[in-house]
Design brief:
This protein has five helices and 15 strands. The protein has 256 residues and is of the alpha+beta class. The chain has two domains: 41 residues, no CATH class; 182 residues, no CATH class. The radius of gyration is 28 Å and the shape is globular.
């Protein structure tokens, strides 16, 4: 009987010891996912595991770029663009004439740097960018609403570049003279980003996909006559004579 009692007591002490150890162990508490505002007014979205969303969408449909920071609005070449949580369809975007003020601000900065060699033309359904020389215009890119009522079309007829300026170094005796040349193709690329950012949460990403397909390595795998997901949109291109012709519409899986 005594032996049995000692065995029973041993089990009890072991159980109490385990409980004491568990009480001392740190408890992992689940975090409530949600928006957290920074001291400077910017926002981040924290997941339940404590990590932050970067280069992705929040559950309520906002896109946060690779910096991990979401801003309610941002300035872009003189324009103030507001971040939304949806892709604007052609009907939701309304008349492009409503963009006149913002486009004027953007073009004024470009014209200052490029000495008036660019021009822009707006209508209700279309925006065109032109190279101006000897009082004549040559179309560089065109952004317009497709006849299907769901898509936008971007027609590219110009080089694009992600580098703002190029520099050359000329050595004269012991002195070095450095000359910086403004890269007009960079400004044309900025216009493309600005136009796409007016309708998409992921304008810079869409512009990069078109740039990559048009003049680079097609890093996003865009395909002829086949929709490919890029950012919050679907993109495809069609064969065209001497131009890049890209169709862009909302990705139905990312409509809020």
């Amino acid at each position: 009987m005594k032996k049995t009692g000692r065995k029973h007591m041993g089990k009890r002490m072991t159980a109490l010891g385990m409980a004491a150890l568990l009480a001392l162990a740190p408890v992992s508490e689940a975090r409530a996912a949600g928006w957290i505002q920074q001291a400077n007014g910017d926002w981040k979205y924290q997941r339940e595991d404590g990590s932050y969303i970067a280069d992705g969408f929040t559950p309520d449909g906002y896109f946060i770029d690779g910096t991990g920071i979401w801003k309610a609005e941002y300035d872009f070449l003189g324009m103030t663009l507001k971040n939304t949580n949806t892709f604007l369809t052609p009907s939701q975007a309304g008349s492009f004439l409503n963009w006149e003020q913002d486009m004027t601000y953007m073009m004024s900065e470009i014209l200052d740097d490029l000495d008036g060699t660019r021009g822009i033309e707006l209508s209700e359904q279309e925006v065109g960018l032109y190279a101006i020389s000897n009082n004549t215009g040559r179309e560089l890119l065109n952004f317009y609403k497709a006849q299907d009522g769901e898509s936008y079309v971007v027609s590219l007829k110009c080089p694009l570049n992600t580098t703002k300026a190029s520099s050359t170094t000329t050595r004269i005796s012991s002195n070095i003279t450095r000359t910086t040349t403004v890269n007009a193709a960079w400004y044309d690329y900025q216009v493309l980003i600005g136009l796409l950012s007016r309708v998409s949460r992921t304008g810079p990403k869409l512009a990069d996909a078109l740039y990559s397909s048009w003049v680079s390595t097609n890093a996003y795998g865009l395909k002829r006559d086949q929709w490919v997901a890029v950012g919050d949109a679907l993109v495809k291109y069609e064969a065209a004579d001497g131009e890049g012709l890209y169709y862009i519409k909302a990705n139905p899986g990312l409509v809020y």
